[in-house]
Amino acid sequence: MPAENAPAPAVNPLSSPEPWDLVSEGYDETTREFLAKFSEYGIEKLELRTDDRFIDVACGPGTTSLLAAPLVRSVDALDFSPEMLRIARRNASDAGLTNVTFHEGDGQDLPFSESSFDKGVSMFGVMFFPDRRRGMRELARVIRPGGKVLISSWAPIDMSSAMRTLFGALSAIDPSRKMPERDISSLENPEVFRKELEESGFGSVTVEPVEMSLDFESPEAFWDGMVRGAAPLTLLRKRVGEEEFARQTKIAHEYLRGALRGVNSLASVAYLAFGEKI
Ligand SMILES: C[S@@+](CC[C@H](N)C(=O)[O-])C[C@H]1O[C@@H](n2cnc3c(N)ncnc32)[C@H](O)[C@@H]1O
């Protein structure tokens, strides 16, 4: 097949800033508090010190930065979504934090020199980068030798009751929509996660499954929270339009009322990978 006729490689819509700009307010209101549980667990293991210079790559609304800032000397937080950064700045200012600097940029090309930081994270960030290994290598470059990092990514959907339930609702709307199979070439595979970090310049790598509970007041609130706070559902809503999305929401609510009778909490599992810059 001539090269010009070859199918273009699939592009993840979440690898551009627009969907993150779109979801930013909802994400801050619904998702941040939940994801902060993973950050809280993870940064405890990084053993932050008051003289640490800390970097947060793909910081979103400041989920991890807001937790780390009171514990360290300084935080540099970077994201490519202007709206996420606007909210992150607002959150830092509301919390009275004066040691956080926010930067608009690409996590694959960090605007910092070598060994600028003692500790660093990218929570649920690099998995969206078109070249996540480049993101890992960049993080390795800006961390000093001996410095510690934490990178998180989602475990396979079938390990999380929250995700299984969400896909149940999506399949009720459109039966051709099936739960995605495990992708063993992605960070869903802890062996791949470990190997990619090692090849990026980190040693003593461990990858730990961490389960947190997602709490909600009602089946409808579970769906509505996901729609407000999850970028893929925000994109779906935009694609199908408000009228069609209202119809789909009715189906989802009805499905969830059956599936979640008496249930107000579901589990979500992430892989937290820790490493030390060699
Ligand atoms: C799921 S959110 C995670 C935000 C935050 N770290 C947290 O734990 O809540 C993913 C974030 O990655 C950012 N992002 C995705 N690709 C990026 C890239 N190439 N460079 C910088 N930021 C990126 C998005 O804008 C979004 O804020």
Give structural notes.
The protein is an alpha/beta fold. It has a domain at 10-156 and 181-215 and 268-277: 3-Layer(aba) Sandwich (Rossmann fold). The protein is 44% helix and 22% strand. It has a 7-stranded mixed beta sheet with strand order 3-2-1-4-5-7-6, sandwiched between helices. Strand 1, helix 2 (63-68) and strand 2 (74-79) form a beta-alpha-beta unit. Helix 7 (219-229) crosses helix 8 and helix 8 (231-240) packs across helix 9. The longest helix is centred in the first third of the chain and has 29 residues, at 17-45. The radius of gyration is 19 Å and the shape is globular. The protein starts with 16 loop residues before the first helix and ends with a strand. The relative contact order is 0.15. Mean pLDDT is 95; it is low at 1-7. It binds S-adenosylmethionine. Residues 15, 17, 20, 32, 35, 39, 58-60, 63-64, 79-81, 84, 106-108, 123-125, 128-129 line the site of S-adenosylmethionine (SAM). The site of S-adenosylmethionine has 23 residues, from helix 1 and helix 2.
Give the overall pLDDT as a whole number: 95
Radius of gyration from the alpha-carbon trace, in angstroms: 19 Å
Total beta strands:
7
Our count of helices gives 9
Distance between the termini: 44 Å
CATH overall fold name of the domain at 10-156 and 181-215 and 268-277: Rossmann fold
Shape assignment:
globular
Name every ligand kind in the structure: S-adenosylmethionine
What structural category do the secondary elements indicate? alpha/beta
